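Protocol step 4 of 6: structure prediction from sequence.
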Amino acid sequence: MDNNKKKKSKTIKDLQSKNEVLEKKMKKLELIMNENLELNKETHKMMKTVKNYVLFERIFFLTKVILIFIPIILGFIYLPPFLKESLSSIQEFYQRMLELITDIERVNS
């Protein structure tokens, strides 16, 4: 009977020591999980900042593209008729000047 008591007390001590080890591991695991949670929160804040930066860059890029390409496209649309009109005016001016020069030469000769 004495042997039985020793075995029971030994198993109880073993169980208690195992329980203590498990409790220590659980506390350590809880600390690690809390640290991981804090790091995840910090990472989330950084990702928000990066996301906002990328969004701003996209908007800025589109604005630059619009400011550059819209005037070019409008120039291709509206400039040819304007240039034709301007060139015809310039040609008329040169023709009149040539006529005037020839008239002056006739008078002087």
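Step 5 (inspection) to follow. The chain has one domain: 1-78.
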